User: Fold this.
Amino acid sequence: MSQLEIDQLVSSLPKRIARLGELAYNLWWTWHPEAPKLFQRIHPVLWESVYHNPIKLLRQVPRKALAEAYQDSRFLEIYDRVVDEYTRYMNPSVNGNRPWFPQNHGQWDRPVAYFSFEFGLHESLPMYAGGLGVLAADHLKAASDLGLPMVGIGFLYLQGYFRQRITEDGWQEADFELLDFSQLPITRVNSSDGSPMLLPIDLLSRTIWVQVWKAQVGRVALYLMDTDVAQNAPQDRQLTYRLYSPDPDTRIAQEIVLGIGGVRALRALDIDPIVWHMNEGHPAFGTLERAREFIEAEHITFEQAKERVCQKTVFTTHTPVPAGNDAFAIWQIDKQLNGYWEKLNLTRDEFLALAEHNGSYGMTVLALRMSEKSNAVSELHGQVARKMWSWMYPGRETPISYITNGVHTRSWLSSRMRRLYDEYMGVGWINRTDDPATWAPVYEMPDDQLWDVHKHNKRRLAEFMRDRARTKWITHRQHPVQTIASGVLIDPNVLTIGFARRFATYKRAALILRDVERLLKIVNNPGRPVQILFAGKAHPNDEPGKLLIQQLYRLIKNADSAGRLVFIEDYDLNVARYLVRGVDVWLNTPRRPYEASGTSGMKAALNGALNFSVLDGWWREAYNGKNGWAIGDDNDFDDLEMQDRADTESIYSTLENEIVPLYYDVEYDNIPHKWLERVKESIATIVPRFSTRRMLKQYINEAYVPLATAGQSARAGESVAQTVPQDTK
Ligand SMILES: *Cc1c(COP(=O)(O)O)cnc(C)c1O
Assistant:
């Protein structure tokens, strides 16, 4: 495999600090607490202008700045520490500190394959639209940390996801930038003869060629497919230009490439997964490809092949929203997959029967049929999913369990907060994050220290908004009132609420605007004001979503909101990091039960914010009456309008009567002790349970290990039984 890109960068750097080139190509640096500072320190201004892309930084930085860095003893001290940790992380067996997975399950020589349409690893690699991608990335990072052998499979999108710009009148405009792959932390995968690997996907009407790139995520390899090669017809070259194409022809071809192409890519790489995990239904065609392989190699029936495939497959469904469960028109299946069923020894009707529902071909249906283990992403979502798909399982229980989502603690925790945790939870707490006992000492953290850290992060958030506004102002890209709308009048001493998410209808961003007069009264309450920071993108084709942003933006611009309502443009991982670290309250208003899980509130809780949310998804499991606030209760109205009215009343009155008074209840020392009591309760009850460390262990114990050993005991005997989990925590 080619390491050419890495070697080139390493050899261009001064020897003493040359391993920066290696770090730049392993996304491990993104979740290490000190590594980003190392890059930043070399050239802080350039670091911002290359948007935290270390490869661009190292290529563009003047030699003089590099020379200064390696003569700076403080820099070298950090460098040596980071490089040492990196070396130890990448070679755990050398140091005898085996990670959790091999310690408990032995060494697997075959990986779990994890398929996902999107991966949200870092802002410099914009291959994600929202929560699904962030979760997929956090899943890979946790696998790397736990030492679980895993490979990811996805796409390298030429245009990434769009960058959002808001016009003076509040209209969202989408900028599609072309990415320069040579500047991304990826390496091209070559064949054994040294030429770029190029894989054919034969369809009846044509062949689609795929090339493969590799991103390194700690110890986990992520393979990214790309069809923009000269061998392809123009429309096929464009298949991997954009995430979530609304064009159904493009979409089905993308899913064929992800599923079928993904399997072929792994084969070409000589990777033989022990278990296959589908993140959402998009990759489900891959299960058919694996069945085809069995049929071709072993001349078995489709039913037998299907059983073999199922036995090794896990499927996670992420949403009850119909648009999130892809279904294709039958004529499209005919057009794109005609002839494929013959390779499966199936007739067209038998092939369609695998996934046909209400006249279309459902990817979730296919995924459920082809998986031994299926799960939803929260308890409530499990109930909803079982009801939704019960028609597939007449006369028996719907086999969908749930594993609630989590977040990768290290990626989302601020460095000040981490140092506080180091002090009170003890060194090494990060490897015990998921153990509730780890968090008992939270209650002993002194209020003044906790409040100091939080205030620091609030100031950082305010500076971030100011710097962005200033940059735009300088470049004349903004009307003066937009500068105010982007947060320059924010006061770090004021109660600050964050509301950041995709502007999808079910998230009900308009709820809080239903009674503008009452809202402005809360916001402008003399002596006890409130600031609300909004951020989020609407899908470029979602007109109602864009109208909603506009309605909100017009209010924000209005002088009556006094600069205390803010819209932060271009919500992405970078904006998310500042927001979840710097707000006091994280607000979430989804229509039950469409949130499925949600994860951003977990990131905020980790950093000492309090959640104020509808009892949907994860929050329904986390809320205990003392660790935040609920909007509404665990019952639903039949009438949506009544539901909205009741939830709105709950939002306003809880703010007026509980949240605002509690925040401003400061004693002689200007510290809100009662507020901090809640914060500590929130940290202690939320951080361990809603971490990817807990989540991934659950996937390992409930899905990966049982499936890895299924069907083997007859052949391999005891050796398998011995690798069964000891520790199920
Ligand atoms: C965490 C995160 C999400 C997921 O947010 P939810 O609204 O909780 O689903 C989406 N986008 C970004 C950039 C995130 O960091």
Notes: The chain has three domains: 3-97, 107-405+697-715, 423-690.
